[in-house]
């Protein structure tokens, strides 16, 4: 079997349930050659994962997943081989997390207006530590704890998903700005799970703008999606990546995909690394 790389996983640094070390261990157990650590708007888990990768013999790709908005819809842009030890880059991410915090505050306010005794303080107690990213899954966990809903799925369907009772989406950066932020830092910008956006016109617009790659292999993509985005990537000369979007487990079920269930060929890692190295030489 050809070696594989799961280039999209999350940890406790954002809304995953496993530590960065646990993600790397699971990658080793799954027989993967490489794993991408791509938490939401934060690089807080990368250093631990890199150290674990050295111990387990797994190539760890330093990454993140930036939240952006286009035409009122959440669009996520993955950044690979980002400078995770650069204070200036971390300062830019802090600005993104401030927007995320404002969104959390507004969601909590709406939930309170609906009669649910939820507080921002109790949600944030679930995530301690500098640079960690808090979002809707943590609010969902608190809703379950309060008995307002029974499951994560119910929390999102009733309150947190697009169009639900407590959904809000304050102004965020456009995906083009996310691409620029990643590339200016010397990283590689890849559009995450385009199949869930149902907006291929935007995908092509971002490809023309300067996107480096497209996440072709993802648990939420159908076979038709995979073929369509592989063809689109080939048409624009973009890299094709893939990942499970692993967030750990909620109960007995994996949240999004099981780690290692959706991958890219291992040689994709070197392709990403080459682009990043060339980009940094030109800075």
TrEMBL record:
Q: What is this protein called?
A: Metal-dependent phosphoesterase TrpH
Indicate, by first and last residue, each region the UniProt record lists as having compositional bias (Basic and acidic residues): 247-256
The cross-references to PANTHER family, in alphabetical order and at most eight, read:
EXONUCLEASE, POLYMERASE_HISTIDINOL PHOSPHATASE N-TERMINAL DOMAIN-CONTAINING PROTEIN
Q: CDD domains annotated for this entry?
A: PHP_HisPPase_AMP (cd07438)
Short name of one Pfam family: PHP
Q: Which segments carry the region annotation Disordered?
A: 247-266
User: Which parts of the sequence belong to the Polymerase/histidinol phosphatase N-terminal domain?
Assistant: 5-70
Record organism:
Brevibacillus fulvus
UniProt-recorded Gene Ontology molecular function terms:
5'-3' DNA exonuclease activity; 5'-3' RNA exonuclease activity
């Amino acid at each position: 079997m050809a070696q594989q790389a799961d280039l999209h996983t999350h940890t406790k640094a954002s809304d995953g349930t496993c530590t960065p070390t646990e993600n790397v261990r699971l990658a080793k157990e799954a027989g993967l050659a490489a794993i991408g650590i791509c938490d939401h708007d934060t690089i807080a888990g990368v250093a631990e994962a890199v150290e674990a990768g050295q111990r387990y013999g797994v190539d760890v790709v330093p990454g993140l997943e930036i939240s952006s908005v286009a035409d009122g819809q959440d669009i996520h842009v993955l950044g690979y081989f980002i400078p995770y030890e650069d204070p200036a880059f971390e300062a830019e991410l802090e600005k993104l997390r401030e927007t995320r915090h404002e969104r959390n505050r507004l969601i909590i306010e709406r939930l309170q207006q609906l009669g649910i005794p939820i507080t921002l303080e109790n949600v944030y107690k679930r995530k301690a530590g500098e640079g960690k990213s808090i979002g809707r899954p943590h609010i969902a966990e608190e809703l379950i704890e309060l008995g307002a809903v029974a499951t994560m799925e119910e929390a999102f369907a009733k309150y947190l998903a697009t169009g639900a009772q407590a959904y809000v989406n304050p102004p965020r950066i456009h995906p083009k700005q996310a691409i620029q932020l990643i590339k200016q830092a010397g990283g590689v910008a890849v559009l995450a799970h385009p199949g869930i956006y149902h907006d291929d016109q935007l995908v092509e617009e971002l490809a023309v703008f300067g996107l480096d790659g497209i996440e072709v292999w993802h648990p939420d993509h159908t076979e038709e999606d995979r073929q369509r985005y592989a063809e689109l990537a080939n048409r624009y000369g973009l890299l094709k990546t893939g990942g499970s979007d692993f967030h750990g487990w909620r109960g007995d079920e994996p949240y999004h995909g099981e780690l290692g269930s959706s991958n890219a060929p291992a040689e994709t890692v070197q392709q990403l690394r080459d682009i990043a190295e060339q980009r940094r030489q030109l800075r």
